[in-house]
Design goal:
Order of helices and strands: HHHHHHHHHHHHHH
Largest sheet: none
Oligomer: single chain
Distance between the termini: 21 Å
Length: about 280
């Protein structure tokens, strides 16, 4: 099927903007927590349909608030347990307590992503070819993790070192097309975590980074009152589909492998390379 990049609409009306925002929220919500890259899909989606008005980076960054709210709500009991357990460990000087190690690991793992993200935010390119290459590279790494990961460790075995290493893996997601959940899930599986545990830990570790990055990047969107209704619709749509995506993925990985995502990412990356090569998409 021939893909063509539609001409951007001139000043779409409110109803059209709200519809586009809901659809973009669906794309963001479904792809943010699956290991396939929300940034890649949003960029490609807006280019194909010519949704330039709402496809601007500040808008698609802002609707990520729906993903933040969804992951916090889904893991609220875990968050409370980790924080209360870590506080108890601090008071008792029990540095071997599970919650303390998880909290410190998450904190330590968040620092590299925030640091490199701040330093490289205006340096990293954002184009179709890079997205395609990273999609293929991360597919191969996830396949390797499936092959050699022991998948013997559960949540009780997590250490501070796991948090640091998965956090370092999270920095790969600064490259468009890599995927935050994909890079952390892959790293966690390389460390021998079970698939479900790896996904759960990657979500928890990603909460601070996703929240801070969204707050930082979305300032422009919230100052643009002209699109506030569309923005709220996008955030609500993102929240609904993010929550459903998290629940589905955790249940899926309890019974299945990640090979479906490996093959999907390979197909996605190859399709993008072919589309650029024959002129269906522009590498911008």
């Amino acid at each position: 099927m021939l893909l063509t990049v539609a001409e951007p609409a001139q000043s779409p009306g409110l109803v059209v903007e709200v519809f586009q925002a809901i659809v973009l929220g669906l794309v963001q919500g479904v792809t943010e927590f699956l290991p396939i890259s929300s940034t890649a899909h949003l960029l490609v989606f807006t280019k194909v349909f010519g949704w330039d008005a709402l496809g601007q980076k500040y808008f698609v960054d802002a609707i990520q608030f729906g993903s933040v709210i969804a992951v916090v709500m889904y893991f609220w009991k875990d968050i409370v347990q980790i924080l209360s357990g870590a506080w108890t460990a601090y008071r008792q000087k029990d540095w071997q307590k599970e919650e303390w190690k998880i909290l410190v690991g998450i904190a330590a793992g968040t620092i590299p992503a925030l640091l490199f993200g701040f330093l490289l935010k205006d340096v990293l390119p954002d184009n179709i070819l890079l997205i395609a290459v990273m999609s293929i590279v991360m597919a191969l790494l996830l396949a390797l993790a499936e092959k050699i990961g022991s998948r013997k460790r559960d949540f009780d075995s997590l250490t501070i070192q796991d948090g640091i290493l998965v956090g370092l893996g999270q920095t790969i997601a600064l490259l468009p097309g890599a995927s935050r959940s994909g890079s952390t899930l892959t790293t966690a599986m390389f460390l021998g975590l079970q698939r479900g545990t790896a996904a759960r830990f990657s979500f928890l570790l990603g909460i601070p980074t996703l929240t801070i990055a969204t707050l930082f990047q979305a300032r422009k969107a919230f100052s643009n009152v002209d699109s506030i209704i569309a923005l709220m619709a996008g955030i609500l749509s993102t929240f609904i589909f993010s929550y459903l995506s998290i629940a589905w993925l955790l249940k899926y990985l309890q019974r299945q492998s990640t090979w479906v995502f490996v093959w999907y990412r390979l197909a996605f990356g190859i399709t993008l390379l072919a589309s650029v090569a024959i002129g269906w998409l522009k590498n911008t």
